[in-house]
Amino acid sequence: MRLNPFDTSKINVGTTGGRGGGLGGGKLGCGGLVVVLIGALVFGVDPTQMIGSLEGAQGGSGQTVSSSEDEQAICTSNAYAQESCNALTSLNETWAARFQEAGIGNQFRDPRLEFADAQSFDTGCGPGSVGMGPFYCPADETMYIDVEFYNQLARMSGNRGDFARYYVVAHEYAHHIQTVTGISGQIRSAQQQNPRQANQLSVMMELHADCYAGVWAGRNRNLIDPGDLEEGMEAAAAIGDDNLTGGRVSAENFTHGTSQQRMAALRLGMQTGDDDRCDSEILQMR
């Protein structure tokens, strides 16, 4: 995917090793829901542990916003970081425009991206670690990414295409959009009211995020290269619950969706570029 270079005036980026210092900036936002991270099942993280962490979180401590010079250095520290910053710039522009189009531009706010450069770190949702894979914390409206996960994803999916990595960023960004629009809060409330449906609701939310990730790509189809769709499908298939668990976990305990479901959700978003289709076709799946 031929993304334009990142623009530090349009993104909010830091590193977990710098939290509380010059690189530690962040925007505190609403809590109330743990968005289960995209790589949870890969690394064996129990989503209920994160749920408990978030329920006790009060939004974190004060932090300092990074300077543009710091962000420039962070985004150019390695090729994966630069790709992620390119994607973040594009995602901010695309979703801000979509909010304006919907007449709610004043409601849009961009998330923060923190690159994990420490084995363990604090988040608004409780302790984090690189072993958890990429995840979004609604309490501080921050995406946390260890770029080493991209290598893990390449081994799992069998390709090293850039779109697979953009899909990761776009999926976590989609969880931010769910938070801003209130979708995640509604799903969390439904989970509390009906615990027996908690996993099914989690699957719905993850597939919805996959679809929104596809919407971003669909709205930038002029930048898509031949093979990007296939790269996305391979990545989505690699992180399906059925593939990750190898039959060791029953379907009723899935939290992200099967490979086929994840591929279908991403494809829907990419082919239509229409978030309303994601809402109507995925949020009604119960």
Word description of this protein:
By secondary structure, the chain is an alpha/beta fold. The protein has one domain (8-282). Helices cover 50% and strands 8% of the residues. It contains 12 helices and 6 strands. The chain has helices spanning 40-43, 47-55, 68-75, 79-101, 148-157, 162-181, 183-193, 198-218, 228-238, 241-245, 259-272, 275-282; strands spanning 13-15, 112-115, 120-123, 126-129, 135-137, 142-145. A 4-stranded mixed beta sheet has the order 1-2-6-5. It has a two-stranded antiparallel ribbon with strand order 3-4. The relative contact order is 0.15.
Write the layout of secondary structure elements.
Blueprint: E1 13-15, H1 40-43, H2 47-55, H3 68-75, H4 79-101, E2 112-115, E3 120-123, E4 126-129, E5 135-137, E6 142-145, H5 148-157, H6 162-181, H7 183-193, H8 198-218, H9 228-238, H10 241-245, H11 259-272, H12 275-282
Which descriptors would you attach to this protein?
286 residues; alpha/beta; four-stranded mixed β-sheet; two-stranded antiparallel sheet; 12 helices; 8% strand; globular; protease; transmembrane helix; metallopeptidase activity
